[in-house]
Each structure stands twice: as C-alpha cells, then as structure tokens.
From TrEMBL:
CDD domains for the chain: gram_neg_porins
Topology class, membrane: Multi-pass membrane protein
Signal peptide stretch: 1-19
InterPro entries (UniProt xref): Gram-neg_bact_OMP, Gram_neg_porin_domain, Porin_dom_sf, Porin_Gram-ve, Porin_Neis
GO MF term (any one): porin activity
Source organism per UniProt: Paraburkholderia madseniana
Record-annotated Porin domain positions: 9-353
Assigned GO CC terms: cell outer membrane; pore complex
Protein known as: Porin
Domain of life according to the entry: Bacteria
One Gene Ontology term from the biological process aspect of the record: monoatomic ion transmembrane transport
Annotated keywords: Cell outer membrane, Ion transport, Membrane, Porin, Signal, Transmembrane, Transmembrane beta strand, Transport
Subcellular location per the Swiss-Prot or TrEMBL entry: Cell outer membrane
C-alpha cells in the first residue's frame, strides 16, 4: 500500500467546550535514477536506451498535503484533505498542473454512521483492491503496476465531482461507494461514474472486491469528467487500449487479497476490464483479464525483498485488432535507514505478443513509460524516499 507516515503535525486547539480542531502537514519525497531499455527515438524505428532522474514513479509519487478535522460533538467531525503532487527535478506541478491534483475533498465523519466526502477522490478500486498490487507495496515501484495501469490499481486516475461514502469498521469488514457527476446539462448519465467495494481484514488475512463503471470515457480513456484530460489524469495513451478510446462505457471488476505467514506475505489480484460499444469498431466490446501473484519477505526489521508475476490478456475484437498478451516480472529490495527514510532498488521486465488495440503487433509498455519499439522492455531504479 502506498502509505503516508505522518510525523510532523500542527495541532490547533479551539477554546470551546468539547471541540478541537487539528491540521496535519504531511508529505513524501521520492527520487531515483532509472535505466530504461527501450523508448521511442525521433526519426528511428528501433528506439533507444534512456537514463534519467525521476521523482514520480518510485515507491510513491512525490507530494505534500494538508489534512484536517474539527470535532463537532456527538462523534461527528468535519474533515478535509488537500494533496498536491509535484515534480522534484523541475519543481513543476504533477497531475497535469492541478494544484491539488492528487486529492481534494471535504466532508463529515461519524464514528457510528461512517464518512461522506465530496471532491476529487480515489474510488474503491484503488482504496480496496489496489492495496494488494505489488506496484502499490513498499517494494514495487509504479513501474510494477499492471501494464498501462489498465485497471487503475496504481492511482493513475481520480474521480472529479464525486460523492464518496465509507462505512465504519464492522469487526474487520468495511464498505465503500462513490458516485461522480458527469456535469453535462440535460443528461445525467453522460460522463458519470460510479463504483463500490467491500474490504475485510482480520489477523494475517486481508481481501477485497470492487466494481467501477464509467460512461463516455473517451476524453481521458478512463477519466470520466469533462474537466479531466489524459494529462491531468497522469495518463499516457497506451497502445494496449488506446484503440478503444471511442468506447461508450468502461468497467472494472476486481478482487485481491493477501495472507501473512510470519515474515512472508503472499498476495494475489485479479481484474476484468471491459470497453463496451466501441464506436470505431461497429459497437464491439473489448475485454482484458489480468492476474498477479506476489511474494514479500521481511528479512530483518530494516530489510525486505519481494517479487511478482503479472499476466494480462486481451480478447480478439477483430481478426487484426486485439488478442495481445503481456507477461511481466517485477522485483524490489528495500532498506530502512530510519522510520522516515529508506533506500531501495526496483525493476520490471515485460514481454508482449499478438496484436494490440491499434491493430499493430503488440509492443511492451511498462506502466508510466513510453511504449517500447519492440516486444520487450525493462526498467531498473535505484531510489531514496523520505516521508514527513
């Protein structure tokens, strides 16, 4: 899980009976050196190696945020979160230049009835199932996400204009639902999105299921709102699914879980992704099935290692479009220097076969990288992460 350790807080007390307010400043700075085997080269069909510093595709994207609450009495609180993403190497804003592009919401939280929030938020796919993906662990970088982050396990897309409900904890069982308004006059359904999920955790066992549905996802392939674009969602169009951009609906059915055997954690995820009524393909539908298994081992309190295998298969929409297969191996090593600072090494290797959504021979496309010029792609990263 992409965890945030809050170690620096500003607490403001309100001089009223039974009322307190608090504001917490938090953040993560994650920087690393990357070596990539193949990315496009202008004027060349063969591609080339790339070496770079990168601050947005490590164990976490670099960010800072403010989180606050006010005690309203009777177990009720007003809550808010404003979270900004930034590019460390240039100082630019991330998420397409949005000031609080990662999260921005306000709402009410009740110990008895749950929490309702409004704004730009994560959906249950991310909150409940994404936590079991290796790319969301403290060992796999964002490049370990499923190819193209097709199922949105890895935080690529948020939902604007959304209302979200999170239930209290019922003995380890929790529920969550989200509805995003399309914002189109005269049409409630256009651009709307909705999702729901359930999560159970007790002792060494954790497991979740979730469903997400988006209408008219063409603008950002998965973004769903008129103000969203491929850039503001952090999405680079991938040939894995870019040929299905004219789909009228997009949906994900997902499940995941993990079990801890002492210092060993075994995890697995599954997702079915469907683009329905693709206008440019005679209203056909395209399906993908993705499965991942992972293993993490705590060698010592300050050393951990892990690896994962992921398989993605798309169905054949026509004789020449779709049917590609993607195999991916990911691994990572993490060493804690302190409670707030760690160093790590991570890597991913992917192969592709068959034909992709554009009707061409499928090429490898590791998440958050430009597509390879051939069927293979690899990336290695050495990084440092500081949390405050």
């Amino acid at each position: 899980m992409k965890k945030i350790l809050v170690t620096c807080a500003l607490v403001v007390s309100v001089p009223a009976a039974h009322a307190q307010s608090s504001i917490t400043l938090y953040g993560i700075i994650d920087e690393g050196f990357e070596a990539i085997s193949n990315v496009p080269v202008a004027g060349s069909k063969s591609g080339g190696r790339l070496f770079r510093l990168d601050a947005n595709n490590g164990l976490n994207g670099s960010r800072w945020g403010l989180k606050g609450s006010e005690d309203l009495g009777g177990g009720l609180k007003a809550v808010f979160t404003l979270e900004n993403g930034f590019e460390l190497n240039t100082g630019n804003l991330a998420q397409g230049g949005d000031e609080f592009g990662r999260q921005a919401f306000v709402g009410l939280s009740s110990d008895r009835y749950g929490t309702v929030t409004l704004g730009r938020q994560y959906d249950p796919i991310i909150d409940y199932v994404g936590i079991y993906e290796f790319g969301d662990s403290n060992l796999g970088s964002d490049h370990a996400a499923h190819p193209g982050d097709l199922d949105n396990f890895n935080f690529t897309r948020r939902q604007n204009n959304s209302v979200k409900y999170q239930s209290p904890d019922y003995g380890g069982l929790r529920f969550e639902s989200l509805y995003s308004f399309g914002g189109v006059p005269g049409s409630l359904a256009t651009n709307q999105a909705y999702s729901f999920g359930a999560h159970f955790a007790r002792g060494p066992l954790g497991m979740s299921v979730a469903y997400s549905h988006v209408n008219n996802p063409a603008a950002s392939l998965l973004g769903s709102n008129p103000t969203d674009t491929a850039t503001s969602n952090g999405l680079t169009a991938s040939p894995i699914y870019s040929g299905y951009a004219s789909a009228r609906t997009y949906q994900v059915v997902a499940a995941g879980g993990s079990y801890a055997f002492g210092h060993v954690v075994v995890g697995a995820t599954y997702s079915n992704i469907r683009y329905s009524n693709i206008a440019t393909l005679s209203e056909s539908s395209a399906d993908f099935n993705d499965a991942e298994v992972s293993l993490q081992y705590l060698i010592a309190p300050d050393w951990s290692v892990g690896a994962a295998y992921n398989f993605l298969k798309g169905n054949a929409v026509t004789q020449t479009i779709g049917g590609a297969k993607y195999n991916q191996l990911s691994a990572g090593v993490n060493h804690k220097l302190s409670k707030r600072t760690d160093v790590y090494i991570s890597g991913a290797w992917q192969t592709a076969s068959g034909d992709d959504s554009t009707g061409h021979a499928a090429v490898a496309n590791i998440a958050d990288l430009s597509p390879s010029s051939n069927r293979h792609q690899a990336v290695a990263r050495i990084g440092i992460r500081h949390q405050f």
